[in-house]
């Protein structure tokens, strides 16, 4: 994921693929996300990201919605453009400034809106007033993760696109399937995040060129459940242990850089975290402090001067039992590997730290003509639940 607007613009110009919706793009183009009922036109939630508009936009859209039938995907009103898409019994709406949206970028807005619907539906099931209002915090976190955290990456992989066009959202808006890119899919089960069991091949991300070096991003989903202290915060220690091997399989002693990047998601409370960003021969440690009911995106940055190499990342809790493993062979052209881990922290009634995870995940790089077109394939195994 690109770090600034200019970098993303350059990435778009140099990319041989169609424009990809990433969080840095949507942060520039989307000011507000609304959801309303198709049954009674009730406003279910209104997420304002730029804090520079009054409630006029929402009121203006709902007035248009109440007066119009068969709305097109895009509605223009004065200086605003509304991008809308319906699913089941609800309607999702993105609000943007007309001056910031070009004709070609409208397709990316539709892609992003479609991905919101697909991910929300995959987490919760059929969308209606009851399911949204009873899961309002989760909805907001999902959308924030996509809009701000950027842990959902879109791709035009034909196999997954075909699967989605047959099995997922049937939009009532007149939008061609060719305009829609599928998101990475995960299913919510109990208190933990699980991948969608209906798809065994999930595109994770793409490599990007940054600062004259190539980086590959790998996403994992884990859930930390914990009880809070009297101060309302809990400290969890997460250790990352790595085994770096050469292509023949024998272990090499290669130093790497372990660091962490954080995204503030919803609410007024921000995360505080301390990471040890120094060079370790085999392992590093990360301490995370966060309020309950919040989510966090962490990125481990691993670099070596001796590619090609295979790398195994093991995430442990308090130095204890193995939680998850990622393996991939990194080609010689790649000097830096970013592993993103998305944590969702929930408050539990008992004082236990439990982690629901997906061990044994295998990632392979599908090499194409350009590293920027690399695609990861994730082969899922069963999940397990460990309590400490």
TrEMBL record:
Keyword Disulfide bond: no
Keywords on record: Membrane, Transport
Subcellular localization: Endomembrane system
Domain MHD: 213-388
Lineage top rank: taxon: Eukaryota
Main location class: membrane
GO cellular component, one term: endomembrane system
Listed Pfam families: Adap_comp_sub
The keyword Membrane appears for this protein: yes
Cited InterPro entries: Adaptor_comp_med_subunit, AP2_Mu_C_sf, Longin-like_dom_sf, MHD
Name of the protein: AP4M1
Species, as recorded: Bugula neritina (Brown bryozoan)
The organism's taxonomic lineage, starting at the top: Eukaryota, Metazoa, Spiralia, Lophotrochozoa, Bryozoa
């Amino acid at each position: 994921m690109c770090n600034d607007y200019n970098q993303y613009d350059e990435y778009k110009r140099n990319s041989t693929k169609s424009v990809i919706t990433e969080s840095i793009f949507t942060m520039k183009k989307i000011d507000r996300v609304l959801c309303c009922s198709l049954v009674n036109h009730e406003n279910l939630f209104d997420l304002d990201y730029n804090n520079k508009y009054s409630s006029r936009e929402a009121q203006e859209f709902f007035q248009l919605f109440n007066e119009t039938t068969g709305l097109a995907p895009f509605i223009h009103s004065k200086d605003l453009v509304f991008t809308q898409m319906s699913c089941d019994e609800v309607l999702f709406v993105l609000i943007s400034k007309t001056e910031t949206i070009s004709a070609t970028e409208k397709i990316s807005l539709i892609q992003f809106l479609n991905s919101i619907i697909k991910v929300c539906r995959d987490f919760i099931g059929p969308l209606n007033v009851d399911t949204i209002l009873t899961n309002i915090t989760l909805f907001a976190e999902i959308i924030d993760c996509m809009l701000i955290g950027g842990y959902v990456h879109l791709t035009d992989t034909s196999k997954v696109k075909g699967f989605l066009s047959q099995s997922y959202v049937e939009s009532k808006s007149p939008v061609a399937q060719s305009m829609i890119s599928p998101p990475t899919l995960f299913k919510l089960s109990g208190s933990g995040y699980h991948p969608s069991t209906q798809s065994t091949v999930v595109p994770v991300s793409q490599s990007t060129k940054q600062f004259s070096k190539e980086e590959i991003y790998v996403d994992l989903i884990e859930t930390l459940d914990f009880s809070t202290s009297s101060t309302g915060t809990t400290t969890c220690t997460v250790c990352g242990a790595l085994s770096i091997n050469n292509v023949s399989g024998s272990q090499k002693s290669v130093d790497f850089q372990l660091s962490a990047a954080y995204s503030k998601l919803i609410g007024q409370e921000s995360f505080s975290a301390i990471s040890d960003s120094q060079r370790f021969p085999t392992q590093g440690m990360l301490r995370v402090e966060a309020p309950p009911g919040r989510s966090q995106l962490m990125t481990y940055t691993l670099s070596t001067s001796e590619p090609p190499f295979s790398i195994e990342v093991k995430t442990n809790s308090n130095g204890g039992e193995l939680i998850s493993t990622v393996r991939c062979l990194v080609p010689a052209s790649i000097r830096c590997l970013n592993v993103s881990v998305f944590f969702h922290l929930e408050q539990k009634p008992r004082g236990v730290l439990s982690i629901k995870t997906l061990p044994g995940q295998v990632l392979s790089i599908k090499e194409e003509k350009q590293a920027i077109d690399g695609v990861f394939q994730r082969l899922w195994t069963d999940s397990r639940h460990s309590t400490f």
